[in-house]
Amino acid sequence: MNVHPTLVAASLIIGLSCASAPVVFMESSPGNAPAGALFPPAKAPLILAAVPSEDGGEEQRPSLLSLVEAYGAATDQHVLLTEGVRNKLAGTVCALHAGTVLPSHSVQSLTEHMLSSNGFFVRILRSEKPFTVEVVDSRGSFDLSGAFAIDPKAVLSDPDHSALIVSTVYTLKSGDSRMISQIMRSVSKGETATMVPLSENTINLIGPMPTVAAWLRTLSAMEQAAVRTVQEVGTPVEMVRARFPLAHASSEEAENHVRRLFSKANTRGGPAFIVVADERTNALLVYCSTEVLSAVEEAMALIDIGV
Questions:
Q1: For site-directed labelling of 153, which of 50, 92, 265, 277 has its Cα 20 to 30 A away?
Q2: Residue 196 neighbours by CB under 8 Å, 6+ apart
Q3: How would you write the pLDDT of the chain (307 residues) with one tens digit per residue?
Q4: Beta strands 79-80 and 101-102: pairing type?
């Protein structure tokens, strides 16, 4: 049974570094324990499973089954492992047969969870019955041993926790998620965050909270500017000129990014949108409406960053 990721309402993550380190629940869901709060100890000892190590030997790791049984809470739901999930889990976390249904107490709550082990993440997606599990291979990406916050409002309300890795789903009011994701990825130079299209109008943003918060602000500002531009066709609009000195990005690079991000701002019959690269002073010159300018300012915070 396939469950669309946009059904996810909140998420938790279990950080796992090695067999001897404690496995800790981190929560950031509103109305529950505050982010970073430690959950009660495991109900049962973790069962260590021997798995191949990089040097060809064996190392002891907690198996997926022992993790969820040790830390799970009683619910009336089950977890179904599909054939694709079994293939990825075999020899990596533990060997579970396709179609295996874990007992109801294996699921901590009726929200999305992630169990981390050996570079793979087992995601339990919310559904009516049963739960469906998918595995995400994030090896080589970034450290996901911190807490997760799935609600965009929670990310924007407190975006200064740079050590906190968050995952959130943004729903576009218009536009193609794949195209916008490509543009946003090209704008942001950081390699510690990722933007994944989930459907035609939804994007999954994963990374440090400040980066995800900046992406959310830029996406929202871009959409608001596009809507206002369409609404204001034929209506007098206050136009402004602005100059953005650049400390890291080149003026040519910044001009290219801004043109791509705000291509809809030049709607025929709408307010003018002019952007010019001043190579002599390495600055970006913009002429646009005040509403579009606020969106450009948000975007420039992402474009002009050091690497």
A1: 265
A2: 181, 203, 204, 206
A3: 333 332 222 222 222 222 222 222 222 222 332 222 222 333 444 343 444 555 666 554 444 444 444 433 322 233 333 344 444 433 333 333 333 343 333 333 322 333 333 333 344 433 333 333 333 333 333 333 333 334 456 556 555 555 455 667 788 876 677 877 777 766 665 545 677 777 777 887 776 667 777 788 778 777 776 655 555 555 556 778 888 989 888 888 888 888 888 776 554 455 667 888 888 888 888 888 887 888 888 888 888 876 5
A4: antiparallel
Hey, what CATH topology would domain 231-303 get? Ribosomal Protein S8; Chain: A, domain 1 (3.30.1370)
**Does residue 161 come out as left (phi exceeding 0), alpha (psi in the -120 to 50 range) or beta?**
beta
Counting other chains too, the contacts that 256-260 makes at CB distance below 8 Å and 24 or more residues apart are 257/183, 257/186, 257/187, 257/299, 257/303, 258/284, 258/286, 258/296, 258/299, 258/300, 258/303, 260/183, 260/186
- Kindly state the tokens that stand for 60: 């002891």
* Spatial CA neighbour of 242 closest among 274, 212, 205, 264: 274
- The H-assigned helical ranges of 10-90 are 64-71, 83-89
DSSP bridge partners of 203: 170, 197
| Whole-angstrom distance, CA of residue 5 vs CA of residue 204 | 9
Report domain extents, the chain. Answer: 5-137, 231-303
